[in-house]
Design brief:
The chain is an all-beta fold and 123 residues long. The protein is built from no helices and eleven strands. The strands form two sheets. Strands 2, 4, 5, 6, 9, 10 and 11 form a seven-stranded mixed β-sheet that branches. It has a four-stranded antiparallel β-sheet with strand order 1-3-8-7, with no helix packed on it.
Length: 123
C-alpha cells in the first residue's frame, strides 16, 4: 500500500520556523520527483516546491523562494520542507506529492498524495 505521511505542522508566530516531513512507503521513493503543495481555506491548491529524484536543484514558488528549503533523504524515504520567516499568508494545509516525471506545478500530474498537515501562522 502506497503511503505518504506528512507531519510537522502546527501553530507558529510570524517570523518563526517549522520543518515538515513526508514519510513515503509502498513505492520506490528514489524513482519519483517529490513536491509540496498547499491549500489555504477557500483557495485553489498552490504548488510550493519540487525536488528531483536525486535531491539536486530543488525549485520553489516565488512566494516562498529564499524562505523555504526543500530536501529529501532517499535512504530514509523522506521528503522535508524547512520553512523559515513564516508569514500569515503561509497558513494552509501542506501536502506532499509524488510524480514519475520531471517536476511540474500541475497537480494533475501527481500520482500519490499525502493526507496533509496544517500550518497556521498567527500571533
Amino acid at each position: 500500500e502506497v503511503q505518504l505521511q506528512a507531519s510537522g505542522g502546527g501553530l507558529v508566530q510570524p517570523g518563526g520556523s517549522l520543518t515538515l516531513s513526508c514519510a513515503a512507503s509502498g513505492f520506490v521513493f528514489s524513482d519519483y520527483t517529490m513536491s509540496w503543495f498547499r491549500q489555504a481555506p477557500g483557495e485553489k491548491p498552490e504548488w510550493v516546491s519540487s525536488i528531483g529524484r536525486s535531491g539536486g536543484s530543488p525549485i520553489s514558488a516565488d512566494s516562498v523562494e529564499g524562505r523555504f528549503t526543500t530536501s529529501r533523504d532517499n535512504a530514509k524515504n523522506t521528503l522535508y520542507l524547512q520553512m523559515d520567516s513564516l508569514k500569515p499568508e503561509d497558513t494552509a494545509i501542506y501536502y506532499c506529492a509524488a510524480e514519475k516525471g520531471l517536476a511540474t506545478k500541475d497537480k494533475d500530474n501527481y500520482v500519490y498524495w499525502g493526507q496533509g498537515t496544517q500550518v497556521t501562522v498567527s500571533s
